[in-house]
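Render this sequence as a predicted structure.
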Amino acid sequence: MATATATLTPSAAIVPSAPPTSPLTLANVLYEKKGTIAYVTVNRPKVLNALNTPTWADLRKAFEDARDDAAVRGVILTGAGNKAFIAGADIGELAQVTAFKAEQSSRFGQEVLDLIENLGKPVIAAVNGFALGGGCETAIACTIRISVETAKFGQPEVTLGLVPGGGGTQRLPRLVGKGRCSSFCPER
């Protein structure tokens, strides 16, 4: 008995091709998806991954993409290099802004952290070093924080008479309780 083999080739009319997707173009954040996990890496190791306006904007774009992609089930956020997760605000940028611009920047950072906190998917902060100021606030906004033993968390801006600008005064007490909050703020 003769055997017949057939090759099935789906018709383009039956199987639509996936629309091409262009990767996000981000200056200060590396963003990639592997399977169901999105990886977001603040990529400014020379300045200990300090947060400036373009970095906040990049974080917002990356997290909006992760939120809107149904295939993404969770996000891992970290910092490039081995010294800092995020060492806080970019002091070089802060030195050049007006009070009005500083308030706008603080509100924008709060919006990004609100996005992270309310993403609807788990966000893991992989803290690989300093998490100070805005870096500590970013870690606090995540669902889970995992850190190396040598990681340092804190809100050192309070020693300069500044209020944590990213919502840390609200998130930190909810996370660790009011009594433990003072351990995150250095004494004078």
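Summary. The chain has one domain: 29-181. Residues 29-181 form a domain with the 2-enoyl-CoA Hydratase; Chain A, domain 1 fold (CATH 3.90.226.10).
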